[in-house]
Amino acid sequence: LDGQYDPDNIFAKILRGELPCVKVYEDAHVLAFMDIFPQAPGHVLVVPREAARNALEMTDGALQAAILRVKRIANAVKSALRPDGIILTQFNGAPAGQTVFHVHFHIIPRQDGVALGA
Ligand code: 5GP
């Protein structure tokens, strides 16, 4: 969980516009885009603009703003895709499953009877 924030991580580059993404939402607090290896159709990532490795290192205000946007974007995904369920999750630290070390939230639509990754 501890360590230095790397300003050249892949999501930092996407936030700066140095790498492309399929954008679904943006404002002063977050950028949301499609996951390049979706676990299910409609898998969206919400990336806070704050330079933090994980959620535990975020300032309270930035975390509050991000979580509110996760909720709003998840509701937009719900309206658009009519899934049977939606996973909202995020991972902190490599042993927890984190692979990109700029804090981000997953929005993963779920359909009855369809396995993750299918
Ligand atoms: P985590 O760190 O929470 O385990 O997951 C990182 C997520 O970012 C993965 O779901 C992976 O598919 C996604 N990802 C990794 N690199 C890129 C990229 O360059 N573009 C996009 N859109 N998604 C990425």
From TrEMBL:
Organism the protein comes from: Maricaulis maris (strain MCS10)
Biological processes, Gene Ontology terms: nucleotide metabolic process
Protein name, as recorded: Histidine triad (HIT) protein
Domain of life according to the entry: Bacteria
Motif Histidine triad motif, residue range(s) on this chain: 102-106
Active site: 104
Entry GO MF terms: catalytic activity
Record-annotated HIT domain positions: 10-117
